[in-house]
Design a protein that fits this description.
Helix content is 44%, strand content 18%. The protein is α+β, with helices and mostly antiparallel strands. It has one domain: Ribosomal Protein S5, domain 2 (2-Layer Sandwich). α3 runs parallel beside α4.
Amino acid sequence: MPAARKPPLSRARATRLSGVGAFQTLLRNGARRDGRYMQLIFVPAASLPGRAGFIVGAKAMPRAVDRNRLKRKLRELLRAFRPRVNALDVVFRVRQALPRQAIDAAADEARVLLVAVLASP
């Protein structure tokens, strides 16, 4: 009987930053860009494609539906910039309490931070 083959990782899974060690390394060694609501932490990717992670704490956004909505918007943002962001490992972190009405503003701010990072040499 042949050995069971693992299915290949999906593209989405291959671009996901996972594991405590990966986050700690990036948080310790990454460069930072700060906005009012969001912080973008980034390092050059060790291997292509680059990976992305999100830190959205329950203290900053108590409702899970709001946290998930913000993460969905951030994933959509990364997909839009995916060809250019492949060279980076990035983490988006919510810096302060974020009211439900400011989710769109935080996503727009994340876009501005990402554009600034991609524009810098």
